[in-house]
Amino acid sequence: MITLSHYLILSLILFSIGIAGVLLRRNIIIVLMSLELMFNSINISLAAFSHFLQSMTGRIFVVFTITVAAAEVAVGLAILVAVYRQRKTVYIEELDEMKH
Amino acid sequence: MVSWLILFIPLIAAVLITFVTRKQKDLSSYVSIGAVVLCFILSIDPILTLLKDPHMKPVEQGFSWINIPGLHVEIGTLLDPLSILMLFVVTFVGSLIHIYSRGYMHGEHGYSRFFACMSLFIFSMLGIVLANNFIQIYIFWELVGLSSYLLIGYYFEKPSASDAAKKAFLVNRVGDFGFILGIFVLFQATGTFNFIEINHILEKGGIPESTIYIAALLIFCGAIGKSAQFPLHVWLPDAMEGPTPVSALIHAATMVAAGVYLLARTSLLYHFSPDAMEVVAYIGGFTALLAAVIAVAQNDIKRVIAYSTLSSLGYMVMAMGVGGMTAGMFYLTTHAFFKALLFLAAGSVIHALHTQDIWEMGDVFKKLKTTGTTFILGSLAMAGVFPFSGFWSKDEILTIAFTSHHYFLFTIGILVAFVSAFFMTRLVFVTFFGKGRYHGHPHESPSVMTVPLVILAFFAVVAGFAGMPWIEPNFGSYIAGPLHGGHGEHGFNLFVAGLSTAVVIAGIALGYIVYCKELKSDPLAKNVLYNLAHNKFYFDEFYDNIIVAKVYNGIGRICNFAEVNFIIIFFVNGFAYLTRETGKVLRLTTTGKLQHYALVMVAGVVVLVLFFGVL
Amino acid sequence: MELIFFYIFAIVALASAIAVISIRNPVHSAIFLMVCFLQVAALFVLLRSPFLAAVQIFVYVGAVMVLFLFAVLILDLGRERFGEYLHHQSPIAIIVVVGLIFVIGLGLARGKLDAPLGKYTEAELVKNIEVTGELLYTKYVFPFEVISLLLLVAMVGAIVLVMKERK
Amino acid sequence: MEGLPILSIIMLSPLAACIVLMFVKEESIKLIRGIAVSATSISLMFALYILFAYDKAKGGYQFVEKIEWVKSLGISYHLGVDGISVAMVVLTSFVIFTGVFVSWVGIKHRIKEHYIFLLLLVSGVFGVFTSLDLVFFYLFYELAVIPMYPLIGIWGSANREYATMKLTLYLSFGAVFALLGILSIYFTAGQMTGQYTFDMTQIGKLSFEANYQKWVFLPMLFGFGVLVPLAPFHSWSPIGHAAAPSAVSMLHAGVLMKLGAYGIIRIAMGLLPEGAQFWMPVVAVLCLINIFYGGVVAMTRKDMKFMIGYSSSSHMGYVLLGMATLNYIGMNGAVLLMFAHGIMTALAFALIGYVYDQAHTRMAYDFSGLAHKMPFIAVAFAVMGFASSGLPGLANFVSELMIFIGAFRTYPFQTVIAVFGIIITATYMLRALRNVFFCQSMPEWEHLKDATTFVERFPYIVLIAVLFIVGFYPAILIDVINTGVVPLVDKINGVSTIAKAGM
């Protein structure tokens, strides 16, 4: 019997892997991918709660999340392309304009 | 109703002149003169009422001006013998001086302005006279200060006039500082500002004696300022920068007497505080002597008269202090006549000679017969020669001082009488007789000026008879009603009268000996005392250089230094510095590396969850 | 039976996720990401949410993945230029991540689900596409519109960002 | 007029004018001025209407408008005026009305933007004085402060960047503390009743714990006190005045400083009566620094705007003293002085601005004998100077008198120093009058022109007339103010209205 905890633990581990990706990798594309991993982990827990609570709210939210994620990826990658054109790099460490 | 009319007619005139007739100079003067004459005519009715019934009941009218819980302030009028007397003095002398001014100020720049201010002054003065409560008297007290300021500074293009105006206002403010505090003390104790109500409470013994003492002294501060008593006497001589009619009306006859009037108004207060009365008496006596001595050594005709005014005011205040309230008021009345006369006559001389220095005059009696005669009559009255008005009033004061065992003050009074006689003689002889040192061709002033002189001279001569001790009812018994502690029956003391007459004659004789020669300059000028007096005992220098320049401005400079160097640097720039430095430190955390921020954020999440979620 | 499938999907998903963040070649990472997405879609099926599974595949596997691959190809990213695998903040980052797992795990272990059950029965949930549609157009119509707008803005924004300025 | 949202009209007509002005061409100056004048005259008209229509017998908040805004947080658009706010609204409308005329003469470039910011600011001020909702109060408070930044920064004179920066930062800094206090009250009140609301009238009915009141009163006092300005946080004000253009100085000293005092009265004292009892004696001491220190510093300053600036902080000291008395007389005096000083100081800055615009200097010793060249301005300045030094017949006298009488009961020592302050005021005012307007005229000021046209003279005439009217017949305002003061003071002194009725 699968319990809610199963899904939540899965979601937690997946989320942590996403964070680890964000914090550890230099390549912005990978960072963006890690963000997607985090989105997915959240989706899992939302859907799981929704299922075990027999309500629809969580599922509806997953739909929204996916939409937002899609938008985010589109904009994020567009920014990435624009930045790359300017700076010829996709490495986070070389993008430290915010310091100034 | 009449009292309201009397009060507001001059104000209406002032407003009218300011807004309507400013361009038509003649019309302005007519409006102003008309207003004050109308006031005089209107005040005849109350005077007749008083003459018919010396024990008249005070007539009080008032409307509420401020009315909130705990504070009720009225604007009202109070007609009692005291205010009716003052009403008469102010409107009568005022009328004459207004008429005189029409001639004297002829051709001056700002003619309308002059008359507007004069009307404003009459309004304010009548406000003081008719006031039925302390707040109102304070209001008009300040307003006479304003009109005095405006009129002293009439020739505002002259720095000396501007300075004198400023000085007069500020010195008066210092006195008023005490005055208003005194009013507060009384209000605190009684809960009302109304004179009659306060008197009732006083009579019932509703106020502790120490409070009365403090209140009396503080209120006396107001009188010190306005009546130019020591140590605030310095403004009055400088106030002579104003046009001469102003000196006559405001700085001799009426406004400066307001302090004495105030003491009379609040006489019950002093009655219950003999200690305060002593202070009043000694300050008055000292001022009288000081001013008389200074007057001996002055060369400006107006200043001599100004110091004699100071001296007379000191006399009046002393009278109030030794318990001679009616005597003080009597002196005030006669003084108003002869001092106004002296100033106006002096103005007439100045008008003819275009100088104020008595050493540039001399031998003009032949040219200025009317002026000269009236001036001499005024001088005799001032010196207190029998039977001129000054004699009677002065005699009454001296008698009271003597009979109330104030022998020291009595001696001072006698001394002042002597010195007064001396310097008035000096003034008369140096100005009108002796060697002619003037330039140009002086001729007598127009009749618009001389007629008031003659009328005033008449009163200066005869007004004293109203106060002769052996007629009944005399001056004192009419106004004794509202006064307390100084009821009229002093009788006639032959010793006092004889002594004062003797010293006056001595003074005149001495003056005659010293000055009835063909003199070019003052024969006493080498004297040390003379020099000291000539420089007014250095009071002005002391106030200007020490009190104002060092202490007053010094505090200002210290505070300004603190402001610039402490408040601005510490509070303002200090905060800015703190912020900037904190920013510099915190800026190091801004590495610009995205992952640093993300790391900190996640760490923050861990900490938050740890604190709020798990623990 | 379901439990077995759950473990299979979960383990594959986690393994591919780890692969995503640890492989150097972005193209490979993208492929592993797709694998992970597919596993999540499968999990949605296990959660009785076929609609979500479909959306997951359409949007993530279909659209997002393609975008990633395009980006990787357009930017011509080969292997990472840096020799070392970890950079200087990595040790702290790992500690923090472990800490995060620990605290949330602690929360999970202590937590207890006591929220009231919803009104949908098991049967209704299976055919939840209808319910989803109904809710989206009634109760959640306002967020739905906002999210649509957001999508539009994102689209416009992306185009504007990438578009080269005309000379 | 029944049913008309009068307060909204007063408040929104400047705002509406702002919006209209945005669509007007920069060049059509006449139209711009016309819009500004008509908007402010609408406000003025309605402000005078509420002054006379306010039902003194009934008291309390009148002309109330209430619209729910965010129900879940308890925020509503809630306007209403009591006696105190009526006086302030009238003051504001007079100052802005004349201020528009003064800028008519004084502002030469970017006229449109100037009016937009000016009107925006004023709308905020009206909002503060009429809001009965804490959120809107704070919102309008910021709306009144922020436009100062561009107004001084763009149209200011010497040292304007420094001044505007300092001013805005100081005021925002203060506002934060006030906000903290407001929020604290909101949450505490919500916890007490279970119903969270920002409505002042609702919160006013509660009585907080005494200790709590003491602690929350302090940040409020500080926050609003910075704007008053309470010494030693006053230094933003003279420098701000000095740099600001005339109309802005007028508003700033005439109205903005009163926002602080109003905030203390309405929120700090009104909602935290026991806090007021605890802290106001401290204020009574601090205000002496304002009065005395501000006065003597004003005395040393040669720049006339600085002089008036310090003088303002000195006079606000009297307001604080009046508030600290916590009795009817002093409070009435304080509110009336806020009104009188607002008018007087607006007049002062308008006059100095007028001279400065022509002579390009404000140093008192640069001038001499201007009365020959500009008699009208000289007379107006004299009236202002005498008003400032508390001469009877002008509004300031009545209010200062009431403050002194009220204060003498509670703080005799402070009163003595405060009364001495009027000597100091007279000193610097008369010195300025003498140095600038009296004595011989100087050849380099031959080109100066007096205010001769109607537009030039109009604002001064209006302000002087107000000073005289209130000075001669103070009851016109006091009777209204008193209806607001009595319940407030009763509340602070713990006299319940029921107990009073029984007496």
List the helices and strands and how they pair.
The complex is a heterotetramer of chains A (100), B (615), C (167) and D (503).
Chain B: H1 2-19, H2 25-52, E1 59-68, E2 71-79, H3 81-104, H4 111-130, H5 134-152, H6 159-190, H7 195-203, H8 209-226, H9 235-238, H10 244-253, H11 258-265, H12 267-271, H13 274-296, H14 301-321, H15 325-353, H16 369-383, H17 389-403, H18 407-432, H19 447-462, H20 475-479, H21 494-515, H22 528-534, H23 539-587, H24 594-614
Antiparallel strand pairs in B: 1-2
Chain C: H1 2-22, H2 26-46, H3 50-75, H4 90-110, H5 122-126, H6 128-137, H7 141-162
Helix pairs in contact in C: 1-2, 2-3
Chain D: H1 6-22, H2 29-53, E1 62-70, E2 75-81, H3 83-106, H4 111-130, H5 134-145, H6 148-155, H7 160-193, H8 200-203, H9 210-227, H10 236-243, H11 246-271, H12 273-300, H13 304-325, H14 328-359, H15 370-373, H16 375-388, H17 395-410, H18 412-437, H19 454-472, H20 475-492, H21 497-502
Antiparallel strand pairs in D: 1-2
Helix pairs in contact in D: 1-2, 1-4, 2-3, 2-4, 3-4, 3-11, 3-14, 3-19, 3-20, 4-5, 4-6, 4-11, 5-7, 6-7, 7-9, 7-10, 9-11, 9-12, 10-11, 10-13, 11-12, 11-13, 11-14, 12-13, 12-18, 13-14, 13-17, 13-18, 14-16, 14-17, 14-19, 14-20, 16-18, 16-19, 17-18, 17-19
What does this protein look like?
The complex is a heterotetramer of chains A (100), B (615), C (167) and D (503). Chain A has 100 residues and is mainly α. Chain A has one domain (4-95): Helix Hairpins, CATH 1.10.287. Chain A is 78% helix and 0% strand. Chain A has 3 helices and no strands. Chain A has helices at residues 4-24, 28-53, 57-87. In chain A, helix 2 runs antiparallel to helix 3 (57-87). Chain A is elongated, with a radius of gyration of 17 Å. Chain A starts with a helix and ends in a 13-residue tail after the last helix. Chain B is mainly alpha-helical and 615 residues long. Among the domains of chain B are: 279-518, no CATH class; 542-612. Chain B has a two-stranded antiparallel sheet. The longest helix of chain B is centred in the C-terminal third of the chain and has 49 residues, at 539-587. The N and C termini of chain B lie far apart (86 Å). The model of chain B has no long low-confidence stretch (mean pLDDT 85). Chain C has 167 residues and is mainly α. Chain C folds into 2 domains: 2-87, NADH-ubiquinone/plastoquinone oxidoreductase chain 6, subunit NuoJ (Four Helix Bundle (Hemerythrin (Met), subunit A)), CATH 1.20.120.1200; 120-167. Helices cover 75% and strands 0% of the residues of chain C. Chain C has helices spanning 2-22, 26-46, 50-75, 90-110, 122-126, 128-137, 141-162. Chain C starts with a helix and ends in a 5-residue tail after the last helix. Chain D has one domain (6-501). In chain D, 76% of the residues lie in helices and 3% in strands. In chain D, strands 1-2 form a two-stranded antiparallel ribbon. In chain D, strand 1 and strand 2 (75-81) form a beta hairpin. The longest helix of chain D has 34 residues, at 160-193. Chains in contact: A-B, A-C, B-C, B-D. The interface between B and C is small, with 11 and 12 residues.
